[in-house]
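Q: Can someone sanity-check these two? First one:
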Amino acid sequence: MRDQTGRDATARALRGVGAAVPGLALVALAVGAAHMTAPLIGLSPLVVAVLLGAVAANLRLVPTVAGPGIRVAAKRLLRVGIVLLGFRLSLQDVVALGGPALAVVVTVVAVTFAGTRWMGRRMGVSPALSLLVATGFSICGASAIAAMDSVVEAEEEEVAFAIALVTLCGSLAIVLLPLLRPAMAMSDSAFGQFVGASVHDVAQVVATGATAGTTALEAAVVVKLTRVVLLAPLVTGMALAARRRGRPLPAGQARPPVIPLFVVGFLAAVGLRTSALVPDAWLIAIRAAEGMLLSAALFGLGAGVHLATLRGIGGRPLLLGVTSWILIAVASYAGVSLLT
């Protein structure tokens, strides 16, 4: 009897893998296209991937048979990508910032996150969308939104809208902040810290910081990656809150873990990077894999977007995104000015 049960479980697993193959093949093609196209149009591969997914879905280019594989990409591959994101950051980099600078980073993230959620409630934006916008603007753009989506019940259109908002504002920052720099009267290092504290996606931070030279770029990246490590406690906190509010589960169904396993993996990756046990060649390969996996996940999320539903979200979320962008810019400028 036990042997039969084991064989049945193996057969089900194999059928699941087989069902996912067509969708994963489509995802792989889309990821390749995103990474080839992104440098030509000046966008992050993550952004291009979610756009490709949305276009494919709305032009009805995604066959039904691809559904299981696309769902695997949007959920499972996303979590692996978030774990690998942890290899970007060493705790030594965080310590090197110093206490005052670290306090500024934490304060900026907290003010932006809490302030955006408060404004979302005042504007009548749905709690899930407000949470996604707050996470994306305060932490690290599309990656953070996707991570938070794995622990809250948000509609796919809300995820896509939040990613679109944070991408739009972050892309505008690449153009606007270098133009505003003369009026800010900041040193290269201070400008880099401001960029790292206020711009959303890692790629956008690199692009903006590089306009002011190597010193600004290095400062921007360290501050930005310090924001990234705050993703773990933020997602864990929201997961705990969701667990407390959760409805009674059907008999036999287990609750999700108190701390999502991908958050544990993220922290373990940060620890490994800090230990210096991972060779540089491996880190390069891990970073490439991270980019591919997150692109795959965002294509999967984009493929669940339907423009008719997206249009129904309305103008208030757009206003929330712009207001959140202004909030993090003002908080970051004030914090960095206090340090200098």
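And here is the second, same format, sequence then tokens:
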Amino acid sequence: MSDTNSIERRFTILGVFVAFLLILILGRMFEKQVMQHDRYLALAEDQQRFEEIEVAQRGRIYVHDTIEGMDSLYPLAMDVKKYAVMVVPQHIKDKEGAASKLSGLTGVSRDEIFTKINNDKLYVPAIKRGLSLADADMIKKEKISGVYLIPENVRYYPEKSLASQLLGFVNAEGKGNYGVEGHYDKELLGTSGMMVGEQDTLGRVISLIENKDAQDGTSYVLTLDRSVQYFVEKSLREALEEYKADSGTVVVMDTQTGGIVAMASAPNYDPNNFRDYAEDSEGIFVNPAIAHLYEPGSIFKPLIMSAAIDTGAITPETKNTFDWHVFIQGYEIKTAERKAFGEEDMTQVLQNSDNVAMVWVSEQLGKENMYKYLTKFGVFDKTNIDLDTEVAGSAPALKEWRDINRATIAFGQGIALTPLEMVCAYTAIANNGIYLYPHMVDKIIAPGGSEKSVEKREGERVISEETSKKMREMLYQVVEKGHSWRAKVPGFKIGAKTGTAQIPKAGGGYEESEDGLGVFIHSLAGFAPVDNPRYAMLVKLDKPKTNKYSENTAAPLFGKISSFLLNYYYRLSPTEPVQ
């Protein structure tokens, strides 16, 4: 074969190969530019497109802070900026080194971090949340590849456990649970903002497609007073320790507005660390003042007495002589001390806390009237206070009432209600006979700072003004001469009634203690000053073990808190001689 033919053959082979390459390249170009045009366009747009979410700040929860008559606002719940340590394992070059450094800076164990990042994932849960700016800066200085610091709003409760069961908490997903946080979750939350746009390869913004500013949440000012709440919680804890009680609740309500001045229960929890309590018992998150029913015992007697006086069935001066026990439908009802008191007027019936006499009062009143007045006192329904988890009182429907129901309810057994329902009933007695609906919020603060007072629901008359006046005087005499005398405050007239109530068992009957003395709830409900009441209060101690009667436990606690309220919060001048 000649050299010329050989060269021509080589050029032919080369030409065929080049033609094949051109066909292959053109085919790939056709596929990408025509067949897969939409896919590659979407990828390009995705690289140019960006989204930034601006998280709204949750509204604050304020309380009043009254010091020496000067009122200011204090936040009990607020958002603070913290940082989350996020990692992209695929971007981390030295995973062992990163785990060691992050462990020293976050306090999370090295092994835990290494297990989380020893892969090629693009996302794993945060290494640590809630870091301060100073801690975040220390991590940033290390310049660890694949480690990112993401700012986030974290709910913070500066007073820790103060009013915790009233406030509730915000969980890890940002949702309010229990209390004010749960009830007003939507309003507190606000609306997050979003910026959507396009950027060039250097990350510079070319255009904005959407730009919506975040709308911060609404803030709330509660009727609660910080100084009163602090004093009440401190006094309650001391009482639990002194009387060796399992738990306790105190509610203070303004009798002229219906606002809750203090609402405390113990034990409680720190909402900053709510996770620490969830494993033990979620029950600690529930507010006993609105969610725990109990048989009130003798503090219920003034409600029945008020109704009987208001209907004209009796007067405070009505007298009668009662035995130490009475049988109703085969059930024996006895006085607490198993003795008769001789002839008594109705004030003395309350002073002596005479169960048998109260059965007689309920007979004069009649079960229909009794049920009607108790309905007006609100003991069968929720108060509809603006807090989560409230429950309604419990009692048989009127059609199911027998004589024994009427008789036992007359002295506070066979009916169950919450501490708040009990306080509201006493507020009606104190407030010239008008029931006030309790409320927790005083004012609303819009994100822009404008304030709006909350419109309060109009109260409803339960008993006449004259009956209210008579009952206030009768309960004053109970403190002066009856079992409630340890609730006295020098210089002021206090009206109150003690109650030592048995605790019902699920299967019927009542709990008993090993020593045979019984297991009781001690409580005292009352108001002050008698002539122009400013507050009503309930004190409740569960299963105290140092004394059998509430006059020696709940009454001194009531007196201690009342002294603070009258002298330092309301700053009233004494009206009675101080002995």
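A (reply): Looked at the second one. The longest strand covers residues 70-87. The domain at 224-569 is CATH 3.40.710.10 (Beta-lactamase).
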